[in-house]
Write the structure tokens for this entry.
Amino acid sequence: MIVGSLGTVIFQCSSFYTKTINNLSKNISARWLEHKVISSKPKLQFDGVELDQLKFSIHLNAAWKVNPLAAAKELENYLKQGKKLKFFLGGKKVGNGTYIITNISEEHRAYSAIGTVTKIDLSLELKEYN
């Protein structure tokens, strides 16, 4: 079953193949200007909203028919090329639907007997692109 997608990276779960996201968090914020007033408390003025930011993790495991290095490299290439990516979960776009990858943290968790990485945990940070 397809869970979602980020660009051409498909997140899906089945008994034969699993690549999906975990721990999705969204950060939204607003800008406020503070005007100083003599002999009084400052006054606040709403100045607009900031771009949404998303964070989530991906566990890549060769035992689930995923090539961890190739999957991590695909996301790394998106970051390095500054690609604008469509992001969908559950068949619906997330936020405005278009994001860029601003940060990737990669942890190699396990290796085979010949030194090939078999498990990688990725942490991704995305920023809304408009």
